[in-house]
Amino acid sequence: MGAVDVRKKVTVEEIESLLACLPGVQRVRVVVNDWGAIEEVHVLTGLGRSPKQIVRDILSALKAQWNITLDRKKVSVAQVQVGDLHLSVRLILAGLEIVTDQLSRQAQVSVKLQKVEDDRTVTYSAKSEAEMHETGMLLAAAKACVKAANLTIEPDNFFTVEDVVSTRIRDKTVILVLVSLITPGRHEDLLGAALVRHEPLEATVRAALDAINRRLESLPPRGSLFRAGRMIDVPEDETGTEEPDEAEEEQAEMEDGKAGVAESPAGEKRKEGAKEEASIKER
């Protein structure tokens, strides 16, 4: 009796999110073919770790998380000085407005964020309402900032505000903002901090941005998912797929890229005549 082909799905964005969390990795782009098989993995890193270590981490992460075996030749690593990384993906505070209603004791906080996209400056705005007391106002500022930031990334990925705290360090007031990043299959807590130099609400937005900008460059920008709906098949259980040694790399290069074959429309048309090439070894 033949083996049952039990598969689960993983998106390109899930793979990029996982690899972006590896030590030393700054940015990741995964390229797949029409069937969803991984063709290329491009990684941008700093100089703290060797390319060989980065590649080994990537292969191990894919194998451990989804049982995907990938040929090391498909991983390309570029190393740059951390200070040389293009910072246009970072959001900056461009405007902060507070409107209060003394009768209802309600306040509306509006935040404008900016970043450079294709040599032009784009502004993102959002609002949040709260009662007119310090804690509520600080939370409103952080939530407005997060709402604006979420406009820059694909909806499957989003930030949320968990808490805002104002504290003292010696004679300085510091704002701490706890932000959660939700991505497909993953939850991460991020903490941002900022000194109060002028006004607590402005410091709150800067603290929220301190947390958000740490992961923003690894997330897919809004409207960038031209691969939307493309899925990668991953075997539920696979045996005999150890990492190929140097003598077997040529053969492994042809087999390993099949670890993520998709059920895309283009793949369906060709699947009938290429079933063995479009799926992972079942045995």
Strand-helix topology:
Layout: E1 7-11, H1 12-20, E2 25-32, E3 38-45, H2 51-66, E4 75-79, E5 92-101, E6 106-117, E7 120-131, H3 134-150, E8 158-169, E9 172-183, E10 186-195, H4 200-216, E11 231-235, H5 249-256, H6 265-271
Parallel strand pairs: 3-4
Antiparallel strand pairs: 1-11, 2-3, 5-6, 6-7, 8-9, 9-10
Helix pairs in contact: 3-4
Structure in words:
- The chain is of the alpha+beta class.
- It folds into 2 domains: 7-82 and 223-271, 2-Layer Sandwich (GMP Synthetase, Chain A, domain 3); 87-216, Double Stranded RNA Binding Domain (2-Layer Sandwich).
- Helices cover 26% and strands 35% of the residues.
- It contains 6 helices and 11 strands.
- It has helices spanning 12-20, 51-66, 134-150, 200-216, 249-256, 265-271, and strands spanning 7-11, 25-32, 38-45, 75-79, 92-101, 106-117, 120-131, 158-169, 172-183, 186-195, 231-235.
- The protein has a 3-stranded mixed β-sheet, with helices on one face.
- The two termini are 12 Å apart.
